[in-house]
Structures are given as structure tokens and as C-alpha cells.
Queue: 2 jobs
Job 1
Amino acid sequence: MGRGDSGPPCPEASEPSQFLGRLEGLTLAYGRRRAQGAGAGRDLGFGRGQEFVGYRPYRPGEDARALDFSLLARLGKPFVRVMRPEAHTAVTILLDRSASMAVGPPGKWQSAVELALALGHLWGSVGARVRWLHGSNPGSIESLRMSRPVDAAACRRALFATRAEGGLGLRDLLTALGSGDDHVVLIGDLFDLQPRDLEPWLRARSHWSLVRVLGPVETAPPVGQAVVWLDPEDSRQRMVCDGGADRWSYLQALADQDEAWQSWCGRHRIGYHVHLAGTPFEDALLGRGPHQGLAL
Amino acid sequence: MNLGLGWEWQHPWALWGLPALLWAWYWLSRKPRPPLRYTGSISLWRASSALSNRTRTRRGLPHRFSEWLALLLALLALAGPEWSGSTPPRRVRVVVDRSPSMYLPGEGGPTRLALGLASLRELEDLGAVDWVDGSTGITEQGGWPSAWDTAPGEALQEPRWERWDQPGTWWLTDHAPLASPLRAGWLATGGAEVPGPVALVEDQELVWLGGERWETRAAPHQELRGGAGWPEAWRRLAGLWAEARGLRFGGLDPLPQDVPGLELVAAPEGPGVPLVWEGPGFGVRGAYAPEALRGLAGLRPWLLAQGADAPLWLAWEPGRCHTSLTRLDAVTGDADALAVAWIRVFDQTRRMPAEIVPQSERISAQAGLQRPESGAALEQGLGGTSWASGLAVGSILCLLLGLNLRR
């Protein structure tokens, strides 16, 4: 790296190989886990706003809450209710595309895009209307809509063609929300956002979810080594910190901030998940892997 | 090594470590350039750095500087700086051997002492000198004490040279010291053997003729003088002693300086104060004049071990034996032991004929003038204040400070 004039290293996202196959695999795995009542993806709004489509016999091991007790009393056999998400559910995914998401490697923006597309794919598979909001500058907020399955490829290509740059953050994207969104998912590093920024928007929305994407350089900065930290949105902003006391204070502040988000989300029944850049999106959406404790 | 401005180094070779120290300073002060990294959390870094800055203030004084300073001070302490003032006085100390051999004829000089002084002045610009009698420690500042041109009335021992091994000091003697000094310089005049009388045996003197040849001949004229006012018993004892040693009674007048022998000096007449004195096995009762011996310079009290508070009633100097007794009433205890003790005093006090010099002094002191190459005593001067200890303490303190800052 030069002395800070080449910009953050990972501004671009690209479609990984086998990405479509992975999306299909995710859909299948999600369906299986939903059928087993594992509750995957609940924090992202799945399980809410679903409509009834019929009954089927109860299989041992299933969630007892799905049992229809009136049928059990009347027929003497256990049946479970079969639900599916409402076909008219509107989901909006807000993607922080500011330059701070270009930090890496592994790139935060790459992970955020993959996660946003996977989430949209899941919603789309149950018939929901999905749109992604992102942008690099105020006044140039872009909206990608996926009302039909045929729109998915175009949206995927468009998102993978974007770069993380500029200073447009989640706070600015919130102003572009419409009034008909049933689910809102915010994906970003949340460094430029405070819980109080979301308060005005909560009453109007049904369900919210927050996914915080962090890079390894942010969760585990170098130990015992001084580093000149650069602001990706303005590389003239620099901060020289050592790998000792400064690092310790930083990690403490990061933990405090994370705890504040968790506490606030808990109070407002909002899903909250921390996603480490480079982690497969399946881990986040299926609640597996080393970060299972923080899984959705 | 004199660096001017009053600073001198005892071990200037240690200063060769300075270039290495400068290099170490450059190395230690060379900060590695920290790498540049982008992060989205710079606002958190900024906030947390403000928190940790409270402790950073303590670390503001880099421990590396303290450790480097400790190294510098240790190096300077090793070099042994001495401060002798803004205008360094060229003051040296010459310790003179005044044993009898120094007054024997030297090669090209009347005495070895005169030869040594002349040689020393030729070799070095002595400047201000403290002349020290190495045997007695008596110091004369300023010019050469002319009284030292003649041999002292008693045979002085050769100085204990190790007492005078200090910077800025010269030893003036006639033969090379057995152990070379570490810090002082020395000059030996040398001198061939000088045969002659070496001892007195009653009224004869023993003469060494060189090698293994000896002869005896009549001793020179010696006198016992004075004694008026001395207690009768002790005057009679002195007479017997003089007869046994071959001294003739020369009357009551003072003994001339050039006449060997012994003079008995009495206290002024008067009633005196009662004296009750107890010595080692014997005692004296009588009266004495307490102030009679107090003001006389150069007197050596008898039985010094009796203490300063004991009545001083017998003292001596070369050639003279003084008493402050005005009346002797009785001798208690072992009177014979007292008589033997007095005879020892007479023997010790007696001024020997000048030509009687022990054989150990008359043998050859090796030939020629000797002065070692390392005699740098004059360069170091006298009276400088050593800073080495202070620098060493400062070095330790800096080291401790550096270790504390490192934690």
C-alpha cells in the first residue's frame, strides 16, 4: 500500500463461482430446517406474516407448537399446520455501500453483497417482493427490484457490478424507504449509525433486522504493532495507534458498541447479527459454523 | 588526558565507546514506519486513543532515551572525568625519601637528594609543589624546604610508598620501588655503594669498607650536656648511660647542632603541681610544670599510648630529652623497669654522628637515573574532583527509570 492515496483495497464485489448452486442449496437447506422447526432465519423475519395452506401428519421431532390441538382432540391423530410466507410480503434490504465497506481483505463489500443476494433469494423463493437499496452519494440512491423470479439474474449482475465507495451510509438510505415495506433488513458495518437514528422509523415498519458486517482488521487488529489507521472515506483522516493500550481500549469500545446494539435490538424485538467478512453466507442464514452463537 | 577547561580523564580509552554509543542512539531512535491500514472503525480508534492517552502521557518520556542516557553516563564514569577548576592549577605533590641514603653522595651531585631534585626540575615544569616528607608525612607548600637539605637528626625509615600512590604525585628516591606505583610517578637517582661507618659499639665505630671488609676505629667525639634541674637519680642514670655509650659530659650549656650526643633539658624552676603517674609496671610521685612542654614544637611525648589527657612530663626530640618534673618524691613499682625504659629513651633521643649510616643505606642503589615511561603523574595534576561516582549513580538511576517506563 502506498502512503494512503490508493484507496481501500477491496471496493469491488464479484460473483463467486458456483454462486447460483450455493443459493439453490441454501434454499433447500433452509426448507429442510424450517420443516424441522429449527427456526433458521427467524431473526430476518421468516416465520412472521405467513399464511395457512393446509395440514399434514405430525412427524416425531417436529416443533410441538405447530400441532393443531383442535384436530388432535377431534380426530385423535396429530396434524401440523402447513404455512407459507405471504406472497405479497415486501422486503427491503438496505446495503451500506460507503467506502468503509471496501476494507479488507477479505472484503466487507463482497460479503455484504453475497449475503444480501442470498437473503433476497430466500425471500424470493417464497414469493416475496424484494428490493435492494444502495448508493454511493446522496441523490444517487439506486433501487433494484425483484418482483418476479426472472428479475433475480439481473439484480444479481447489477449488485456484483457495484463498488463500495463514497460516503453514503445506512442513515441516508433510510430516507429512501417507502411506506409499504413489511420487512427491512439493514446490512453494513453500523459504524456511522446509532440506535437513535432508527427510532423514528420503527413505528412504521413491521419487522426489522440488522446485519453488521465487520472485517478481520476491525475485529482483530494487529497486536503489539503500531498502525496508521486511515479513514476509507477520507484518507487524509489518519490515526496512529499502538498495538497495546490503544488496541485494548479499541476492542473494549467495539465490545461496548456491539453490546449496545444487541441490547437495543432486544428491546425492540429486532434481529441482530454480526457477520465476519469472508464467512460463507450459509453460515449466517442457517446458523452454523464457528459463529453459530451469533447466527440468525 | 587533559582536555582543557579543567576537565581531565583518568581512562580516556573508554571514550572510544562514544561512536558506538552514537550509533546505538541512532539505532534506538530509529522508529519503524508503522504500516497504513484502512478501517471503517476509525471513529472508535479515535475515541479509544483519547482514553489511552491518559496513560500515554506517562510513556511520553521514551524508555529508550533513559536507557541510552544510562549507557552514556556509565561510559563517562568509566572514563573517569575529573574537574580541577576552570583554570587548572598545575599542582603536584613530590614525596621525598629522607632516609639516610638520600644524603649520601650521588653521581654528579653532593647528595642523592640534590641530584634527584635537579633531575626532577629538568624533566618537568613542576609548577606549584607540595613537598612531602614521605617518612613523617610533614608537608611543606611553596618552595623547597631548605632545612631538608641536611639529614634529619634521626635516621628516618624509607617511606611506605603505597600510602602515596595517587595521581599528581611523584616519588623521589634513590632506588626503584619494589612495587611499581599504579597512579603515581617516580624518579630514582641511583647511586653507587658508599662504604663508611655503619654503627657505634660503645666508644668504637664499626666501619664497612665495602664487600666483606670491616674495621673498627675510635668513635667521634660525643657529649652529654645539661641535666641541671633534673632529679638527681635520673641525672645519675643519664651519666651512667653516657659512660657506657662513650659520651663525655660537656657541661650544662646546650648541645651545639653539629655535635653528636644528648642534651638533658629541665623544666623551669618552680613549685609545680603534684604528679601522681602510673605507668606500665611502675609509677612516679612528685611535682611537674604542666605547661613546660606544651608549647614546644616537634616534641614527641614518651609513652604516647598513655593518652592525651595523661600528664606530659617527659618528651624528646632528636638530640634533646625534656622533662617537666620539678620534683621527684618516689618511684613506685618496678624501679628497674623504669630505668631500662629511660635508657631506651636516651638511646632513641641521642643524636648520632652524621657519618654513621646503616649498611643497608650504604649499599648500591643501582646505577643511573631511573624514571619509568608511564610516569604521567604530572599530567594528572593534584586536587581534581572525581565525577565517576556521581555519573555511575546517575547511570543506575536512568537505567531504573528506563525499566520502569518500559513496563
Job 2
Amino acid sequence: MAASLLDVLNLEVHYGGIAAVKGVSLAIEPGEMVCLIGANGAGKTTTLKALARMLPAQGEIHYRGERIDALPSHALIGRGLALVPEGRGVFSRLTIAENLAMGAYHRRDGEIAADLDRIHGLLPRLRERTSQLAGTLSGGEQQMLAIGRALMGRPKLLLLDEPSMGLAPLMVQKVFEVIRAVAAQGVTILLVEQNARLALEVCQRGYVMESGRITLADSSKALAADARVRAAYLGA
Amino acid sequence: MDIFLQQLINGLTLGSIYALVALGYTMVYGILGLINFAHGEVVMIGALSSLTFVRLLENSGLPGTLVLLIGLLLAALVCMTLGFAIERVAYRPLRSAPRLAPLITAIGVSIVLQQLAMLIWGRGYHSVPALLPAGRHEFLGASFTNVQVVIVVVAALTMVGLTLLVNRTRLGRAMRATAENPAIAGLMGVDADRIISLTFVIGSALAALAGVLVSANYGIAHYHMGFILGLKAFTAAVLGGIGNLAGAMVGGVLLGVIEALGAGYIGDLTGGVLGSHYQDVFAFFVLIVVLVFRPSGLMGEKVAERA
């Protein structure tokens, strides 16, 4: 069990007196692409935020053999754990180049320029607009920027929160192409997604979350065939 | 015409100082959404502590300009420490409290600092020795002193430096990112607490500089000099659009000029009923007009977005 990249044991998050996450346990192996699906309000985003230490939580979070549940949020990216937040969270008053530079804020190595080139190759739209304010981008472009920014931090584990949210279908396809490309480069991904069909299509494995608990965990193929999942999330 | 030019020069001098102080208000507001009402007192502490250091060095035989410079540096250190401490003691514990609470501690800190200064430096007015080489220059019927030149030049250079720091450096980028969204900046590895501390420290260094310049300009310093200066600089920050650095600079200079011109012409305008000692009225008149017609300031963004 200690070999997993991420091991979460009994994670609990409370908002005031209300429990939003009620004892979630999950494990992710290096190189995997795993999704966490569920209805609106099931606690998916809260779980990710707790993993990124943006919310106070109980339970244990082991990441690469280290307990990170007492670390501050800003200590995580240096360890290779990045979150692309729900709603993208680009710095709208910074330029695209500055947003990408913020992604590499914690780095002191000499390969930042090379990574920037690589990310521009992956996301050519960003190269064309480096000096434009991020707030002027479309939603899809902002999502690309948010992913690119996270990649500038050289993450080993990328937490993606609802990357398809609010995007036109064509843009969703493009965003997921990028996510696939990122995974192909060896980055481990935990994807939270309301679009269960899409999530199960790209991920090898999935967890189903319902009102703060994980109710199902299986391979994507098995989940997509599961009658309960089909009825609740795939509309079949 | 010579009154106009003369008052323009005086206003520019005063306005540069307002701008330096206004930057301290606006930087803190930009990052925390908080008005640091104790900032004016930091200016006062800067002026008085530099005076103390200058007095200690006065008879050392060092050239006056060097004494002034050493006094300024030591005062800046005092103020930077003070700014750091104010944030730690008065604001950080209240980071998630309702917005009114830190406003009240700000006023509390302001009173404490004023009283502390009164205990240390007494209630009297201190004359500030003229350490720069004296000199007066004539220009199209108006005149200005070396001190005024130094004030405007030093303030301008400082503002250029700060602008470069904020817009061109890694630290400045982190400051702007934190101002926009501290939680997301945290995900990038930015320690928001550290950035906030640094913001207070930088603002306090500017306050120390402003304190030294303003006391050199008037030749006096006293324990309650920070109050009205702070209030005017705050007005300047609001005038320019609080949270906006360029706005604070423009607002400061503009306010200084408006005030000086107002003071120069108020006698003529009111047929001698009101004299130039009514100059403070203009700053607050401007504040009211701005709040009524352009609440977000000349260069400010929509206020509604910041909850």
C-alpha cells in the first residue's frame, strides 16, 4: 500500500456543522488516470480541495510516502502535486505569459524556458497571445491556460477539477485531447468530472461518489457497464 | 501667472509625498482589501526616528547629505520592522474576521503609535535641520528650492522602481497574483503570508521616505503629523482608484496640485473671506466629489467585483 502515489484514508471535510466529505479513501498508482464522478454536490470538488490542502480536513493523505495532510497548500507544488481548480482560476489581470510564469514560481532550475516551449507546443493558442491579459480569453482558452500553468510546475500528480465545465462540446474535445497528451507524458491524473461518459472514456479507473461517500470503485469498463452508473450518470 | 506656476511647483512637491504615502495604502488594499489606517503614523515614526538618528550623527563631521541618507536608511529599517509587526499583531489574527474588525484595530494601532511617539519624542514641535545644500532657483517668475527638487526627483525614482518591482519581477508577479486570488497563488507555491508581510514592509519603507521628505520640506516634525498626512494620502489613493498603483501616484500628485492651487486662489475667489489656511478643505472636497461621481476612482476598476 505504501507504493501508491497517493493514498487517502478516511478523508472528512466539514463546512460548519455539515459534513461534505464523509470518510473518503482512495489510492492512485503512478502513471494512472483515474476519475472521480458523481452528481452535483456529491463532494467531488471538496475532496480535491482537501487533497490540495485548501480546506481543513480530517483523515490521512499520503503522497509519495509522505503525509501531507498537515502541510500548507503552498508546499505541495514543490512536491509535484498540482491542482487545476474548478472554474479554472487563471489570474485574469495577469498576461498569459505571466500566468505561465506563475506556474513555475516555485522552480529555480534552468529548464523553465524549455518547459515553456514544450507547453506552447502542446497549446499553440497560448503562444499566439502571450502578452494578452488572461481575463480576455474564452472559457476554453482559459482552461487550456490553467492546465498549461499547472504543467509549468512539472507535476507528478495533476488534480483536474471539472475541466469540461461550461465549455462548448468542441472545446471539451480539445481540452480532453490535451489531458490525454499530458497523461501520455507520464503525469498521473485524478480527474473530477460531471460528464461521466467522457471521464470513463479517458480514464482507466473510476470512483463514484454520492453524498460525501465513495459508493463504487472499479475499472472504467466495469463502471460504464454497471446498471446503477448507467442509470444515474450515463442516462441509459 | 507666477502664482499659478509657483503653486504648481509647491503642489508637485507636496503631491509627490502624498503619492509615496498613498502607495502604502493602495498596496495593502490591493492585497488584503483592508485600509491600513495606521499607515500615516508609520510616516510620522519615520520622520521622528530619522530626526533622532540625524541628531546623533549631526556632530560627527560627516557631510550633511550623508547624515540625511544614514538617517533615512535607519528610519526605513525602523518603519519596515514596525510595518511587519503591525500586520502580525493587528491584522493577521483577524484575517478571516468581518471587515469592520481590522478597521477598528487599525485605528487602535494608530492611537497607540501616536501616544508612543508622544512619550518618546514629547508633545513639542521639533525643528528638522537642513542637511541638503541650500539653494533657491528662479524659473519664469516662480522659485523653488533644492529640497523641493530632491523631493520630486527621489519620489519619482522611487515610484519608477516600485512600478518595475511590481510589474517586472518574480516577487511583483506573485504580489499581483496574490492580490487577485491568494488561494490559487498558493497552489503555485506562493506563501501568501510572506507576500502580505513583504507588502507591509515595502509600504513602510516608502512611508519612512515620505516622512523624511515631508519633514525636510516643512522643517518641522511632531507626533501628530501622521494623522492629517495619512488622511490626505488615503484620499489620494481613493482619488486615483484604491488598489491601483498608478492611480495612487496620479491621485497623490493631483491632490497636491489641487490643494496648492486651491490655497493660492481661495483668497481671490472668496474676496478675502477665506484664507490659505483653508487648504485642507480642498482635499476632502475632492474626496467627496470623487466618491459621489466616480466611487472607484480615476483609474480604479469596478468595485463590485471585490466582495
